[in-house]
Structures
1.
Amino acid sequence: MLFEILETFHSAIRLCFSASLNNPTLAQLQTTLTVSQVTMGYAQLVIGPAGSGKSTYCSSLYEHCVASRRTIHVVNLDPAAENFEYPVAMDIRELISLDDVMEELGLGPNGGLVYCMEHLEDNLDDWLTEELDNYLDDDYLVFDCPGQIELYSHVPVLKNFVEHLKRKNFSVCAVYLLDSQFMTDVTKFISGCMACLSAMVQLELPHVNILSKMDLVTNKKDLDE
Ligand SMILES: Nc1nc2c(ncn2[C@@H]2O[C@H](COP(=O)(O)OP(=O)(O)OP(=O)(O)O)[C@@H](O)[C@H]2O)c(=O)[nH]1
């Protein structure tokens, strides 16, 4: 019985971690999308649990692009974020901030965050559309998202956000960051993989999983096993 459960998880995990752009099906899907749509721009949604390294990834990506003379615009979608190591191109806090919501509505941090994201959802046609109008064809936007994983599992806000970007002719993909510490313990490994899988299923986007903080894994041999 245990063996069967592990086999099932193993298949799910293989699905999770092989879903990279090298996957021929996804590559084909991307080509089809690029050819069949008049693409206005490109968007990458950087998602993952709290503290998994999303903002660090966004700032490293930004620095890499500056060094290689490419242009990307990093967007802050976290109404609780305070410090940034990249220039913020668009900021959800201009629309709503978590501190204001918690103070005015007496909500806690998680309820407040869901409220902020639902407010964003209500303002997709005005605030977001106006902000997106500042970007030209072929611009590349990277969205640094909040870390509450319910946003990627069952709350429909991010799904509707993605649909809005697609209606604006953006080609969208998701990058899911998972702390590599999740790989060092079997129960954390299974829960981390299930969280990745649930985001893949919910968002229905070309999806890349990235293990972050590999420098903190001292025994890489254990990781392979
Ligand atoms: N050692 C190590 N630390 C990292 C790495 N990436 C991120 N961190 C650290 O992990 C912590 C969290 O990183 P963030 O980039 O803020 O994570 P986040 O996912 O944006 O966090 P939230 O927005 O709160 O969900 C910070 O202290 C980072 O310095 C890495 O590759 N190696």
2.
Amino acid sequence: MDKTQNIKETPTSLMDEEPILEIKDLKKAFGNNHVLNGFSLNLFKGENLVIMGKSGSGKSVMIKCLVGLIQPDSGSIKVMGKAITTLNRTDLDELRTEIGFLFQGSALYDSMTVRENLEFPLRRHKSRFKNITDTTPLVMEALESVGLVNAINLMPSELSGGMKRRIALARTLILKPKIILYDEPTSGLDPITSKEIIALMRKIQKKYNTSSLIITHDVDCARVVSERIVLLVNGINYAEGTYKELAASKDQNVRAFFK
Ligand SMILES: Nc1ncnc2c1ncn2[C@@H]1O[C@H](COP(=O)(O)OP(=O)(O)OP(=O)(O)O)[C@@H](O)[C@H]1O
């Protein structure tokens, strides 16, 4: 099926805006393995955009291209108007402070308290926070946003899986990112904790006016959290639309995601 049949026009409410993140015709192959074959997407301010694709379809490769960890073979990626592939190391590092990551495993530092885990990114990006002498208000605000103020002095070993994920999110929020990349935010969590994380993602979107790219296999998460969904199939943005639109599609490749 011609992919253009599946691609929805950009929603009219967003049409006048510059995308905060723009991927155009991205191609990446490893030898004969052509992973991305002209993938494109626009992420707009304040939007939650879900990317779904089956295992091995290239979601992680796309994210790595996006943050400059992998050089694509061709195509362009602009984040807040800056072309990623042309930035030098310093500019790329600076741009990365505007992007929050919540990756699978949410790796907190086991030997540090929750407070120290949250302070870590502030120390790493010293130049941006050099005028801050007391980190407590920032730590408290981030913990408040994820509903875990009381966990400030706990060690990661004292936290449940869901709490760890919340703290990892707080550690991301402390840098006040404009864009958040979530990689499987609900994987490994029980249904109730997943629902709590999903609700939290919505709350964060509203409170911080962040734009998010969310990679997930979790159809429930996609339904609740997204304004739009992009399906990555055969290395391209095969289909795009709201949950409702895609869930009603008759295309077998699209239906496969909603069974
Ligand atoms: N550095 C690399 N060198 C060679 N091949 C790679 C490299 N990174 C990824 N690949 C290949 O690219 C393809 C896509 O991998 P990727 O990790 O992006 O999939 P994914 O969609 O994120 O999968 P999953 O949902 O299982 O995490 C796979 O065939 C993988 O083997």
